Amino acid sequence: METRNLTCINCPLGCQIEVKMEGNEVVSVTGNTCPRGENYARKEVVNPTRIVTSSVRVSGSETGAVTVSCKTASDIPKGKIFDVVKDIKGVTIPCPVHIGDVVKADVAGTGVDMIATKNVV
C-alpha cells in the first residue's frame, strides 16, 4: 500500500492530508477538516488539475493598458500548464475587453477557453 502526503490548497487552513492507495485506487483519506479536502486529495493523486492564470497583450486601449489578466475558464490537466502558457504567448486582443470575454478558445487543445478577468477599454 502506497501513502501520499499532501497539503490541501482548497482553503487557507492548508490541512495536511494523508492518502493511502492500492495501485491507482484511493483506499482512504485522512487529515482533512472538510469534505473539500477529501475531494481535492482524491483528485490530486489520480488526475491533478489546475486553473492557469496569466496575461495577454491588448491593442487600442484608451487608458494605455498594454495587457489584460486572464485565466482558464475551468481547470486543465496539470501536465498541460506549459502548453497553455506557450499557446497564449503571442496572443493580442483588441479593446474593449470585458470580464469573461474569450481570449483564446480551446487553449492548447484542452477543450477549455482562456477568458479575461478584467475590463480594459
Q: Main beta sheet: strand number and arrangement? A: 5 strands, mixed
**Rg, please?**
18 Å
Oligomeric state, counting identical vs distinct chains: single chain
Number of strands: 10
State the strand order across the main sheet.
Answer: 8-5-6-10-9
Number of helices: 2
Q: N-to-C terminal Cα separation, in Å?
A: 56 Å
- Going by helix content, strand content and strand pairing, the class is alpha+beta
Classify the helix fraction into a percent range: 10-25%
Provide the low-confidence segments as ranges. Answer: none
Average pLDDT, to the nearest integer? 96
- Note the run of SSEs as H and E: EEEHEEEEHEEE
In one word, what is the shape? elongated
Share in β-strands: 35-45%
Q: In words, what does this structure look like?
A:
The structure is a single chain. With 121 residues, this protein is α+β, with helices and mostly antiparallel strands. It has helices spanning 35-46, 81-88, and strands at 2-7, 16-22, 25-30, 49-50, 53-59, 67-72, 76-77, 92-94, 102-104, 114-116. The strands form three sheets. Strands 8-5-6-10-9 form a five-stranded mixed beta sheet, with no helix packed on it. It has a three-stranded antiparallel beta sheet with strand order 1-2-3, with helices on one face. The longest helix is centred in the middle third of the chain and has 12 residues, at 35-46. The termini are far apart.
